[in-house]
Amino acid sequence: MKNFLLILIALLSVKAAAQTTYDFTVKDAQGNDVSLSVYKGKVSLIVNTATRCGFTPQYTELEQLYEKYADKGFEILDFPCNQFGQQAPGTMEEIQEFCQLNYQTRFPQFNKIEVNGDNESPLFTFLKSQAPFKGFDQTTKMGKAMHGMLSRQDPDYDKKSSIKWNFTKFLIDVNGKVLKRYEPTEDIALIESDIAELLK
Predict the structure, then answer these.
(1) Of the residues 10, 53, 142, 188, which is catalytic?
(2) pTM of the model
(3) What are the angstrom distances between the C-alpha of 200 and each of 15, 22, 24, 141, 182?
(4) Active site residue 53
């Protein structure tokens, strides 16, 4: 109960203190501080990633989005995370090499973080407060599979805003406002449609 109250207070204080993603400073892949205010005026997709996940091939789709829209004011911010099945092992150098060799990624990749729990990134605390979990689309095979796996681990998983798995995505507008959350099972075509609409 005490831990729950502390997390709730932290969530409320972060929400009150930070109005946009631009209020946060994160570490780049080399460990240097980067203010997300450098992305002011851009539409961004923030993603927690992993290199040994069933969803890892989504790097191909993400890079295609980046190539198509980067010169129109679009950015992808990649945050590796090893919390789900230990599927992002290795050093940042190894992770970067893997992504560049296998998926030719060019979008910014930041230092490995945690997205849930006591050591979670304040950025992701904020993202979750702005766009809580709304469930998987269980009309799809992958949506059903994710729901089945997670509900076996925790029957109440769907009542929590926590990040559920690798490749959860948050859409950020040009003002740093969190507009939408996409679970890893979301069709990339829908995400692209939302991005294109914002870039008009």
Answers:
(1) 53
(2) 0.90
(3) 29, 22, 26, 33, 21
(4) yes
